[in-house]
Design a protein that fits this description.
Number of domains: 2
Strand content: under 5%
Radius of gyration: 23 Å
CATH class of the largest domain: Mainly Alpha
Shape: globular
Distance between the termini: 39 Å
Helix content: over 70%
CATH architecture of the largest domain: Up-down Bundle
Structural class: mainly alpha
Mean pLDDT: 77
Largest sheet: none
Low-confidence stretches: 163-206, 412-428
Number of helices: 19
CATH topology of the largest domain: Growth Hormone, Chain: A
CATH superfamily of the largest domain: MFS general substrate transporter like domains
Number of strands: 0
Length: 428
């Protein structure tokens, strides 16, 4: 997308607007994705998300290859892509505990993240070569084909219904049985009351059945209550909000621009992006093999200063080899923290609200990205791209180090969050 917008408009500012539009659309529908993920089949939601993004990528490919692309069309396609993407994150986070036992979640997150990052390592380099040789339209054509293939494979897979959906079905069935036996009990006097009570749904099934009867706003309030109850979760979400706005988003906008001007163009940016992905693979696989840290919140917070390495190298105008090395270091930290955070959230949040809590986390942690995308171009024009990225990396490194000393992150384990009726949902 970055080089497509730069080729059509030649403006980093307009690139920021396109990325901001895509991110805003994704965030706007993430909460709806969380509601859907706790209410409907999570596998179906993922399939529809992949299919929607395949359609958006195919549209971009067609317009770019036919030279009919314009800034409004690129913006509209990016928004459509973001809308489909908004449903993916919450459902994918909540699906894994439906498939994998609780004590295997960390290796499973590492394996899933490693496979994803391995593909992401090859994709930027390949995309950079395709864009450099054939243009961004060909790159989007390949992306559309891959997304369509993934959607087809997922649609053919036999995935579990999901604990929330299954529990809701069981709860409704139990409720109907309870009403039937309750009526029989009333016909036979007091003896029927225990039977009627026995028919009421309990535990996770009862909560899911009640959730399915609630209105969307009430369901979101239930997710919000669970989210704010876990202090380490909203603290880390707030940390990531600032980091994504001040560092991640500017690198996404200004990185391709600097690569185009000083480092060799799309192929160089593809190598840098591949460095991030390869580092993430190493971090994820390592995190899946080691014992979870005794203080996970502290470990996750301490990794953020390391994640500023790529922005700092770009800001200082380092040569390509140094930028790739810094990008790999950033990816390594991203991979480790991703496994730690996902596992901690999946084992600390009740399964019947997990998709909603994941959606709230995504909205909070990535809510600053559209602002960062939109402001990166103007701020870089005002103070210079190199100076802006250097200052951003330095500020986040210092602030992230100070943040790690918060007492709430230094406990030996996350607080248990499994209430009565939800056994096994204790903290790490």
């Amino acid at each position: 997308m970055s080089f497509a917008v730069l080729r059509v408009t030649g403006s980093p500012g307009r690139l920021g607007l396109v990325l901001a539009g895509q991110a805003t659309a994704a965030l706007a529908l993430t909460l709806a994705g969380g509601l859907a993920g706790d209410r409907f089949g999570r596998g179906r939601i993922l399939t529809c998300s992949l299919a929607g993004r395949a359609v958006a990528a195919a549209l971009l490919a067609a317009t770019l290859l036919t030279r009919t692309a314009s800034f409004p069309l690129l913006l509209a396609a990016a928004v459509a892509y973001g809308c489909a993407d908004g449903f993916f994150g919450p459902a994918s986070t909540a699906l894994l505990p439906d498939i994998v036992p609780r004590d295997r979640l960390a290796p499973a997150n590492a394996l899933l993240g490693g496979a994803t990052s391995t593909a992401a390592a090859a994709a930027p380099a390949l995309a950079g070569l395709i864009v450099a040789a054939l243009g961004p339209g060909a790159g989007f054509a390949v992306q559309a084909a891959l997304l369509a293939s993934a959607a087809g494979s997922l649609a053919a897979a036999r995935l579990p219904v999901g604990c929330a959906v299954a529990a809701g079905m069981a709860g409704r069935a139990a409720g109907m049985a309870g009403r039937a036996t309750g009526m029989a009990g009333r016909a036979t006097g007091m003896a029927g009351r225990p039977t009627g009570m026995a028919g009421r749904p309990t535990g996770v099934a009862g909560r899911a059945a009640e959730a399915n009867r609630e209105r969307p706003l009430a369901q979101l309030r239930a997710g919000w209550t669970e989210f704010i109850r876990i202090r380490w979760l909203w603290l880390l979400t707030g940390q990531w909000l600032v980091f994504s706005m001040l560092t991640l988003a500017p690198v996404t906008v200004l990185g391709p621009t600097l690569a185009q001007r000083y480092l060799g163009g799309p192929a160089a940016w593809g190598v840098i992006s591949a460095g991030v992905a390869l580092g993430a693979v190493g971090g994820q696989l390592a995190a899946g093999r080691i014992r979870p840290p005794a203080r996970p919140g502290l470990a996750i917070a301490c990794l953020l200063p390391v994640m500023t390495a790529e922005a700092l190298a770009l800001g200082l105008g380092a040569p390509l080899a140094a930028v790739v090395g810094a990008a790999a270091l950033t990816g390594l930290a991203l991979g480790v923290q991703g496994v730690f955070f996902q596992t901690a959230m999946q084992t600390s949040v009740r399964p019947d609200v997990l998709a909603r809590v994941a959606a709230i986390d995504l909205v909070g942690s990535e809510g600053g990205q559209p602002v960062g995308y939109a402001l990166a171009g103007p701020l870089a024009a005002a103070v210079g791209a190199h100076a802006f990225l250097t200052a951003s990396a330095a500020v986040m490194a210092v602030a992230g180090t100070a943040f790690a000393f918060l007492p709430a992150l230094r406990g030996r384990e996350f607080p248990a969050s499994g209430p009565a009726g939800s056994p096994g949902r204790s903290g790490l």
